[in-house]
Amino acid sequence: MRHLLSAGDLDVDSACLILDTAAQLAAITDRSVKKLPTLRGRTVVNLFFEDSTRTRISFEIAAKRLSADVINFAAKGSSVSKGESLKDTALTLEAMGADAVVIRHGSSGAPHRLATAGWIQGSVVNAGDGTHEHPTQALLDAFTIRHHLRDNAGDLAGVRVAIVGDILHSRVARSNVLLLRTLGAHVTVVAPPTLLPYGVGEWSCAVSYDLDEVLPHVDAVMMLRVQSERMLAAYFPSVNEYGRRYGLDTRRMGLLPAHAIVLHPGPMNRGMEISADVADGERAVMVEQVSNGVSIRMAVLYLLLGGMTDDVKKET
Amino acid sequence: MPQEKTVLRGVRPYGEDPVDIVVAAGVIAEIAAAGSGSGRIIEASGLIALPGFVDVHTHLREPGREDAETVETGSRAAALGGFTAVFAMANTSPVADTAGVVEQVWHLGKATGLVDVFPIGAVTVGLAGEQLAELGAMATSAAQVRMFSDDGKCVHDAAIMRRALEYVKAFDGVIAQHAQEPRLTVDAQMNEGVLSGQLGLTGWPGVAEESIIARDVLLAEHVDSRLHVCHVSTAGSVEVIRWAKSRGINVTAEVTPHHLLLTEDLVASYDPIYKVNPPLRASSDVAALRAALADGTIDAIATDHAPHPHEDKDCEWAAAAFGMLGLQTAFSVAVLTMIDSGLLDWRTLADRMSVRPARIGRALGHGHDLKVGAPANICVVDPGASWVVEPATLASKSRNSPYSGMTLPGKVMHVLKAGKPTVEEGDLAC
């Protein structure tokens, strides 16, 4: 594996390798000295064209725990806004010797372009591109689900997951549908028809417009952030109506099986897609998702740049 | 003093039996037995003669974007592509919405002299879709504009479209519509389908094209005027146009070479070389477009030649410009998609690349059958040759060809414009 651009690039073995590696690395970070020397002397650039403090910090901590040198490059705007172009930024980073570029970009496919246009030699990690994908988010979600429902081992065969909300604009949903399917889970996407992509019927998942009908039959439910501005473009009539039909509140929690968990990639709109009671409830695993995110990103950087699993085995 | 004659020796008109086509004083003077003509001989045995191609849809970028193309460089590309006439779209800077701008483009075309450049006038001032441009002034200018288009933008206001269709009747004009419902295509990046959903690129649904065409053919019927539909890209659009023609509505349509060959799957590379408007569609659309061109529902191949400087394609998808080069590859793509597939023969290909487009745009002196007395606008092609597309070697100032590295069949060898060679042995005549 040279780049991580799409969750669809991972087969079940490589996906499980990342999850297993993350589990091993998580054990290390539970120690008081949280550092591994593995990536000493390697340079990781966080190239963020969009603000995303959480994701950037997660990648930064992950790289630092592996002893990599980390550079944060916040590039406002893009070639559209007459700033420095993606290409020139890439050439600059290449000249400075970046071993890996973690890129967040508002334009779908920008990481793919960065990896394939011949501008740079290093590895590219997609940290979220437009409305396309966010593969490390899907990996950390799978890791969290596996931890709760599969005792942190193997794939997710037979696990039933509902992804609820703005599927159309969600890179988290796209990566999750691809990865969860690869791992053997059954996925149902739930949304009003306006917030489902054209052609979603061809995706490797089930589709429903009715959250109440789906909830009794899932082991995990993933609530997506829904921007209230979407109603201005007629995706739904009002925040209240959205919440009534697709929000996860206490009543709907009662429809879920007792073992089911609730995930959310954050940041949450409390009172819209998720009620405060549910968000703060004991079946909500959002805090774990955040810490698992660091382990997953360590595993990804480790496998892309280090690639020597023996090291980890020795340390553990 | 004896008149200078040029002889296309042993050439096969429309792929038929070899003859000598003798050209003098800008017209076809004689069609004689092969080997019998005398004068300046152009050896053309094995080659096919067709009427010079006419492109009703090019972007020559001058004035305003001379970094991408000029009338001169675009004319070179056109001549090398077998064209003897091109129509230059109005979305220049300043917009060709006045007699002054269209005359400037017309004069630049004359000065270059490789092809006849027919400027297209804007329908509305500044392409803004709000107020009719001075269509009559452009029609009566030296440029004699007959085709009007806001191409790049749709004349989306139904009332403006109706008035434009009516108004141009006074001078036998035609409105060439870029059919794109703007509200259905906000930030659209590629064909709306399963793939756009997977790639996370905003979809450009076929219905945004089809609904405008449906409205416009009904408007054209109502006001009894002439409508031309630019770059038809979907099977649904074909159905609407077929229905309109069956009703006797005065509508014509064009298809681009790239919509006859390329499909949306190429977008999965996120390489903006494949970014074009209207977008590349599904293979079922490609099949419908080929069939429609074959049965005449679609009248013409038009290139939508859209040069862009390298930096406008060497970037991420969303930041890239829409458009592809087309002039020098159009004939070969037509051979690949229409001749090699048996959908068209040489005579019907000539009809779609010369006769009908000339008629649509009222390109005087072009689109004539190869017969004695016709203006000697002739393209001679080698049907058996093939060539590898290398964008850097194309005559255009820009390099944004989606066919880079492809081997294409058919080669333009000689072109006569009004009897004078513009292309000899595949190179520009000096």
From TrEMBL, chain A:
<dbReference type="GO" id="GO:0006520">
    <property type="term" value="P:amino acid metabolic process"/>
</dbReference>
<keyword id="KW-0808">Transferase</keyword>
<dbReference type="GO" id="GO:0044205">
    <property type="term" value="P:'de novo' UMP biosynthetic process"/>
</dbReference>
<dbReference type="Pfam" id="PF02729">
    <property type="entry name" value="OTCace_N"/>
</dbReference>
<feature type="domain" description="Aspartate/ornithine carbamoyltransferase carbamoyl-P binding">
    <location>
        <begin position="2"/>
        <end position="146"/>
    </location>
</feature>
<dbReference type="InterPro" id="IPR036901">
    <property type="entry name" value="Asp/Orn_carbamoylTrfase_sf"/>
</dbReference>
<protein>
    <recommendedName>
        <fullName>aspartate carbamoyltransferase</fullName>
        <ecNumber>2.1.3.2</ecNumber>
    </recommendedName>
</protein>
<dbReference type="GO" id="GO:0004070">
    <property type="term" value="F:aspartate carbamoyltransferase activity"/>
</dbReference>
<comment type="function">
    <text>Catalyzes the condensation of carbamoyl phosphate and aspartate to form carbamoyl aspartate and inorganic phosphate, the committed step in the de novo pyrimidine nucleotide biosynthesis pathway.</text>
</comment>
<dbReference type="InterPro" id="IPR002082">
    <property type="entry name" value="Asp_carbamoyltransf"/>
</dbReference>
<dbReference type="InterPro" id="IPR006131">
    <property type="entry name" value="Asp_carbamoyltransf_Asp/Orn-bd"/>
</dbReference>
<dbReference type="InterPro" id="IPR006130">
    <property type="entry name" value="Asp/Orn_carbamoylTrfase"/>
</dbReference>
<dbReference type="GO" id="GO:0006207">
    <property type="term" value="P:'de novo' pyrimidine nucleobase biosynthetic process"/>
</dbReference>
<dbReference type="Pfam" id="PF00185">
    <property type="entry name" value="OTCace"/>
</dbReference>
<feature type="domain" description="Aspartate/ornithine carbamoyltransferase Asp/Orn-binding">
    <location>
        <begin position="158"/>
        <end position="304"/>
    </location>
</feature>
<dbReference type="GO" id="GO:0005829">
    <property type="term" value="C:cytosol"/>
</dbReference>
<dbReference type="GO" id="GO:0016597">
    <property type="term" value="F:amino acid binding"/>
</dbReference>
<keyword id="KW-0665">Pyrimidine biosynthesis</keyword>
<dbReference type="InterPro" id="IPR006132">
    <property type="entry name" value="Asp/Orn_carbamoyltranf_P-bd"/>
</dbReference>
<comment type="similarity">
    <text>Belongs to the aspartate/ornithine carbamoyltransferase superfamily. ATCase family.</text>
</comment>
<comment type="pathway">
    <text>Pyrimidine metabolism; UMP biosynthesis via de novo pathway; (S)-dihydroorotate from bicarbonate: step 2/3.</text>
</comment>
Automatic annotation (TrEMBL), chain B:
<dbReference type="InterPro" id="IPR011059">
    <property type="entry name" value="Metal-dep_hydrolase_composite"/>
</dbReference>
<keyword id="KW-0665">Pyrimidine biosynthesis</keyword>
<dbReference type="GO" id="GO:0004038">
    <property type="term" value="F:allantoinase activity"/>
</dbReference>
<dbReference type="InterPro" id="IPR002195">
    <property type="entry name" value="Dihydroorotase_CS"/>
</dbReference>
<dbReference type="Pfam" id="PF12890">
    <property type="entry name" value="DHOase"/>
</dbReference>
<dbReference type="GO" id="GO:0006145">
    <property type="term" value="P:purine nucleobase catabolic process"/>
</dbReference>
<dbReference type="GO" id="GO:0046872">
    <property type="term" value="F:metal ion binding"/>
</dbReference>
<dbReference type="GO" id="GO:0005737">
    <property type="term" value="C:cytoplasm"/>
</dbReference>
<keyword id="KW-0378">Hydrolase</keyword>
<protein>
    <submittedName>
        <fullName>Unannotated protein</fullName>
    </submittedName>
</protein>
<dbReference type="InterPro" id="IPR004722">
    <property type="entry name" value="DHOase"/>
</dbReference>
<dbReference type="GO" id="GO:0006221">
    <property type="term" value="P:pyrimidine nucleotide biosynthetic process"/>
</dbReference>
<dbReference type="GO" id="GO:0004151">
    <property type="term" value="F:dihydroorotase activity"/>
</dbReference>
<feature type="domain" description="Dihydroorotase catalytic">
    <location>
        <begin position="48"/>
        <end position="235"/>
    </location>
</feature>
<dbReference type="InterPro" id="IPR024403">
    <property type="entry name" value="DHOase_cat"/>
</dbReference>
<keyword id="KW-0479">Metal-binding</keyword>
<dbReference type="InterPro" id="IPR032466">
    <property type="entry name" value="Metal_Hydrolase"/>
</dbReference>
<dbReference type="InterPro" id="IPR050138">
    <property type="entry name" value="DHOase/Allantoinase_Hydrolase"/>
</dbReference>
